[in-house]
Batch of 2 targets.
Target 1
Amino acid sequence: MSDQNREHKNKKDAQLEKDRVEDKGKKLTTNQGLKMAEDEFSLKAGERGPTLMEDFHFREKMTHFDHERIPERIVHARGFAAHGEFELYKSMEKYTKADFLTDTSKKTPTFVRFSTVAGNRGSAETVRDARGFATKFYTEEGNYDLVGNNIPVFFIQDAIKFPDLVHALKPEPHNEMPQAASAHDTFWDFIANNQESAHMVMWAMSDRAIPRSFRMMEGFGVHTFRLVNAQDESFFVKFHWKPVLGTHSVVWDEAQKINGKDPDFHRGDLWNSIEEGDYPEYELGIQVIPEEDEFKFDFDVLDPTKLWPEEDVPVEIIGKMTLNRNVDNVFAETEQVAFHPGHVVPGIDFTNDPLLQGRLFSYTDTQLIRLGGPNFHELPINRPVCPFHNNQRDGYGRHTINKGPVSYHKNSLWDNTPETASKEEGGYEHYHEKVEGRKVRARSESFKDHFSQATLFWNSMSEPEKQHIINAFSFELGKVESESVRKQVVDMFANVSMDLAKGFADNIGLEAPSNGGSDVTKSSPALSQENTVKSPKTRKVAVIVGEGFKGNALNDIFNTFKSEGVAAEIVSNKQGKLKGEDGTEVAIDHTFQTADPVLFDAVYIAGGDLNNKSFKQSAVYYASEAFKHFKPIGGSFEGTQLLKENDFTDHKGVVVGDDASTFASDFVEAIAAHRHWSRELV
Ligand code: HDD
């Protein structure tokens, strides 16, 4: 669809319009605008002769193709993005002077890129990994980037260790295996020998690292940042994105299967939900600690391996972001977007978190190699929506045509313009923090407690979540060949919890140390996904239907699904249409070959003729996979019979019934619960 005829959603959308090109229906030309009469045959000396050097069209086409690829991101290579808007619920002027956080009348355009960390650009998406959650706010005062993850803490405390962490995590260099996985020797060797990683490892082994959808994960700025108000008062702040649909995960067996059945599972989910108008929404929350309270906690607020328990420092919800537009071109937008934690606006500033300080160098540096030079800020997706003027000039791929002779400061020819702005005019001034100290390569004593919050996280988990963590350690360490590394990891996590260490040590043929454990008893209920929002909205149900189904009942059930926001997709043994006993026709969305139960949130066997042997086998396969993954299962009419015969009924989350309205509402409730873990405990 040409965008020229549609109303632009916001200033960024309108700005991008200038660079959008519609090729459909146009004549094919060279890059010089020359219409070409032929595009399939190179210019040859005779029909069977050699290609001629003169063939400028061939040379141009081939050269461009040969140069199409750019280096992928060193981390977060696999990602997907969408445009959106941020609206502020209430002014935050008590904490910050940032325009987009004080003016509630403004809607700020945003661009969000979600990503995995370890895998390459073509890797699968439901791997066990942290997810990047990077947001660019195109504010009137310049771009502000919140470059966060779906895990609120980080593996290391000092940026100088980042290359080591990433080398250990990425595929091992001698054989480039495994792809997009932390389940290998070098990663766990790094963990055991860098024990500050304990807390983040707990998150990475938890269900948080296998999200159901980008739409159902939290985002965290991770670092403690600084807000500064108009009176120059400063506050420590942590940023949170809270998904309106709640925080939900898949189970590990399912995650691994999805990687094969649909390696694009997460991007497809994001793309489709936006195309269908189910816009993903995230509320922005802040935790604030006044400067004078800096030392009131049992952790250092500058330590990026620590979170601020929400029960101690409440999250104040201040606004909402809605992702409402897919990109037009993945390379131009998603691949070329350049995030940087150093892209700030007046009212937002940094702290001395040593991880944050190092990031402030790395991001520009990486864009220089990745995007080929210093002009990446001119790429359409990166350009601010406010004007920008300075004396920076030239470089590869310069777009801006700066007029006139002056490109230096100070000058008299242009009255010293472009001129700096005073603070009152919106000029950025760094917070006047007092710092003094000796130059040392050292870590503060206050950063040395690596285990208390790892235990806090463990204590906060429900029983199924704890079991999933034990299973994840067992899987990951089961793939580690070095017994010494495995043993070191068992010993390390005995500091977090003996139940945990014993739980997985046994599974990997080792013993937990006889003494260990933690005396931390505190927990933070906000960390458990058991306490998240439960909603049936946008959940996908595989509806298995055979010929001769009960048309009226199915219609009623579909109407309830629709009104509750549940998406029903019909799966059957072949493509085309199915006829109900009353003549009702339904179109089949997927066949048993093209879909799989792991791609759905629930399975409903609606009935009809299920007697064909392979049909029946497929229906049972759908039910058994859904059962194994704790998903809701529904059955009516012949479907109930099939579920009964195969012992699926009489379990939590299995709903059967022929009365359309009771069945539909009970089944929707089971869908909203997401997963029925008590099946695991019986
Ligand atoms: Fe980073 C990319 C998040 C620590 C160096 N990082 C990158 C992206 C996200 C994060 C979401 C992808 C952005 C996009 O979609 O384009 N990184 C984090 C978080 C961290 C963190 C939440 C800890 C709190 N990162 C971190 C450190 C360093 C880097 C300590 C180096 C000192 N990160 C990079 C990078 C990347 C990057 C190499 C790769 C591609 C890019 O920047 O643009 O510079």
Target 2
Amino acid sequence: MAIEQTFSIIKPDAVARNLIGTINARLEAAGFQIVAMKLIQMSRSDAENFYGEHQGKPFFGPLVEYMTSGPIVVQVLQAENAVLKYREILGATNPENAAAGTIRHDLAESMSRNSAHGSDSLSSAAREIGCFFEQSEIFSK
Ligand code: UDP
């Protein structure tokens, strides 16, 4: 299997509840190498651009409000099959549907405040990484 990079966000609800270390420990235990990471606060235009595919949906406005409401951790994760592997340990969007043992099942507060983001494809990962990181900020061999 190919070594891939995927993009991750530890969302405002998880940062506010001091879960950065808990989530990073899960990522490392699952075999991900954290090759880039920073604590930032998204601007409104960052969030509208990042979630552009959801523009026009009823949850878009609240999603932008929530994602800009406090600090988040943005990360690049590297592993074999990283995109699918992260979606598996992340769990379904709605924590009520997420499998036991996944990040969202165990930590998320609700469908909207669902603790973490992971890219859904390699092409999304490349786009999303580019929204927040320069190549020089990514420490992969
Ligand atoms: N979201 C929401 N209500 C919905 C669908 C999505 O609040 O009905 C939020 C939720 O935080 C989700 C994000 O919008 O993580 C992006 O939605 P997407 O369908 O891309 O889910 P994901 O890829 O994050 O599982």
